[in-house]
Amino acid sequence: MNAKNIMIQGTMSGVGKSLITAGLCRIYTRRGLRVAPFKSQNMALNSYVTADGGEIGTATALQAIACEKEPTVEMNPVLLKPSTDTESQVIVNGRAVENLSARDYFKKKKSLMPTIISDYKSLAERNDLIVIEGAGSCCELNLRQDDIVNMGLATAVNAPVLLVGDIDRGGIFAQLYGSMKLLPENEQKLIKGLVVNKFRGDPTLFQDGVDIIGENTGRPVVGVLPYTRLELPEEDSLSERLSNREVKDIDIVVIRFPKISNYTDFLPLERQPEVSVRYVDDVKQMGNPDMIILPGTKNTIADLRWLKKTHLASFIKKSKRQIPILGICGGYQMLGRSISDPEGIEEGGEEKGLELLPMQTVMNREKTTRQMSGYLENGELVKGYEIHCGVGSFKRRPWPLIWQIKNAPEDVEGVLNYKTLVAGTYWHGFFDEPGVVKTLIDFLNKRKGGMTSTGDQISQREATIGELDRFADILEANLDMDFIDSLVL
Q1: Residue 227 gets which letter from DSSP?
Q2: CB 395 within 8 A of CB 358
Q3: Using CB atoms within 10 A of its CB, is residue 273 exposed (0-12), middle (13-18) or buried (19+)?
Q4: How far apart are CA 120 and CA 38, in angstroms?
Q5: Could you confirm whether 428 is annotated as catalytic?
């Protein structure tokens, strides 16, 4: 292994580990180093498909983009996608291998360490620096014995650790001091510096706090980072975006399923100044939207049953011909006539769909994961990726949504019914190209008698790079980069 490394761990979930990892990746990539991200194990419902059809966490894919690299499965060897409250699909090196209960996975996870180390070494041989992200809290005492993602990994690859705490959620002194002191001495030694994240206000007023933390932990606070709103893909269900209730000129409602996945699909819509994207889980919140989107989900039948129980299904069905409706992946399947799961891949059983599209779906064990591209009927480029187990079938092929598909045996994808205003596609990332967004917003504006779209005309990838650069600048201005350089250069 040739590469140096540094690891970002946290006092809890949601403290900002993923973004700080991405920011450091961006900083050192801009300096000319060959940098790669690494997260040995991730649990998330938002995932990304690599060029070779592997599945990894969205945060790791974002970090790869920060490194100006194509995401690969070696960057995230193990991905857990919860399918129920007690069971997850286990994905190893990009491929789904089995569904396990939490208890069974805990018994097995230590056996994944050789794969994790092999993938790490593969990246280290091709790069100058590996920026590693931990998961959750660094000191989950009940999980310490077989840890493969926090201090267990840091010890295995001898990584210096920056420990991040979230001051916005309170208790920053207890977070940082308590997390360190709960670790054994050999692991405490790996923590080289502390970071206070999400500070609101004048950081000079917290200088006494910085001194107190340093005196009590014996470690320097290497940065107090300002609370920063970023338009970047997230995979954490704690995302503040999901709580947005603002209504703008064009109001788009996304159904917030209990097992919602890949809601990063809608970032390009959220960037548009005249558009509000509201995530709704109660029929009382629906209002009078200009469009309804049914997003992806990790458990399609369970979330379809939830949709009916909450009466959102009735609202959606009554909206046909009045409000445009779009389903993506699992949401697309729900719009069909039925979904059956004879082998118990997700929920098991069979459920009647919303019957807004003439499609039947049968779940199968072989998972489809691939990157795709094609064109809308008006010639606008569409790029996306598929992650699904179900196979949809039609007695008679309806009018497609996407044409001239590359990298697939079929010519077309999805459904578009002009009369009922209902459409669907399996493609995540459907809105990533600017022409698709403009086509949709112009269509919705025209229905309201408004003007054509005035939003930005850049791709989601270009927008992401711009935000990563902005965040990297913020990190460089607020971190002790000389100290961090001493760890990695």
Answers
A1: P
A2: yes
A3: exposed
A4: 7
A5: yes
The pTM of the whole model exceeds 0.85: yes
Among residues 138, 329, 388, 389, which one is catalytic?
329
Q: Indicate if the pLDDT at residue 184 is higher than 70.
A: yes
The tens digit of pLDDT for each residue in 383-440 reads 999 999 888 999 888 999 999 887 665 688 999 999 999 999 999 999 999 999 999 9
Asked if residues 102 and 87 have their Cβ atoms less than 8 Å apart, the reply is: yes
211: burial class by Cβ within 10 Å (0-12, 13-18, 19+)?
A: exposed
Asked if 427 and 413 touch (Cβ cutoff 8 Å), the reply is yes
Instruction: Give the number of other Cβ atoms within 10 Å of residue 348's Cβ.
Output: 13
Q: Which residues, 6 or more positions from 376, have their beta carbon under 8 angstroms from its beta carbon? A: 382, 401, 402, 403, 435, 436, 439
Measured over the CA atoms of residue 239, residue 245, residue 246 and residue 247, the dihedral's sign is positive
- 3-state class of 165 per DSSP? strand
Q: Which of 169, 170, 166 is nearest to 224 (CA)?
A: 166
Take residue 336 and report the two structure tokens written for it: 């069909």
Check whether 111 has a pLDDT greater than 80. Answer: yes
How far apart are the C-alpha atoms of 420 and 462, rounded to whole Å? 34
Length, in residues, of the chain: 489
User: pLDDT, tens digit, for every residue of 337-380?
Assistant: 999 999 888 878 899 999 999 999 999 888 899 999 999 999 99
- Report the mean per-residue pLDDT for the chain: 93
Instruction: Give kind and range of the element (H or E) at residue 86.
Output: none
Question: Does residue 170 contact residue 134 with C-beta atoms inside 8 Å?
Answer: no
Lowest-confidence pick of 170-174, 456-460, 485-489:
456-460
Distance CA 138, CA 15 (A): 12
Task: Give per-residue pLDDT as tens, 37-95.
Answer: 999 999 988 899 999 999 999 999 999 999 999 999 999 999 999 878 888 999 999 99
329 is catalytic: yes
Residues with Cβ within 8 Å of residue 480, at least 6 apart in sequence = 193, 220, 222, 223
Q: Tell me the per-residue pLDDT of 247-296, one tens digit each, with 9 for 90 and over.
A: 999 999 999 999 999 999 999 999 999 999 999 999 999 999 999 999 99
**Hey, is 328 helix, strand or coil?**
strand
C-alpha closest to that of 295 among 388, 172, 394:
388
DSSP string, 410-460: SS-BSEEETTTTEEEES-BTTT-SHHHHHHHHHHHHHHTT-PPP-S----H
**Nearest-CA neighbor of 177 among 151, 146, 212?**
212
